[in-house]
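Morning!

As promised:
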Amino acid sequence: MDENSLLEIIQEREDGILQNELWRVAGIDSRKCSRLVKRLLDKNLVTREAAVSRGSRTYLLRARKGVSFEVESLNPDLKYLIANGEFSPCVGCRRECEPKYCEDLTEWIANLLAEES
Ligand code: SF4
């Protein structure tokens, strides 16, 4: 099991997967799972939100909708929707939420600000 295989499992779950379920599904121990998840987080391929499952604290992991492209090749108008090589998480998002509390949007805006500075 490597990080790519783990990512595939996460991608199969449209609503995300709890980390304490992920390591069982992947057939690995929780420590190895944490290491692989950290790599996926570092590469910005997944998002992580605190969650509680059966009274235990864990994380809900979701795969980012990856779009691979060269920013320079895009229509200049689209560049305003991109930060750190990623489209705004709101593009194509169907979740219901209050933007003020959306972790994905907050992170994306932080990337946008980091790029500008
Ligand atoms: S604010 Fe968050 S949940 Fe709402 S549309 Fe954007 S990414 Fe989706």
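Residues 67-71 have pLDDT under 50 and may be disordered.

Hope this helps with the figure draft.
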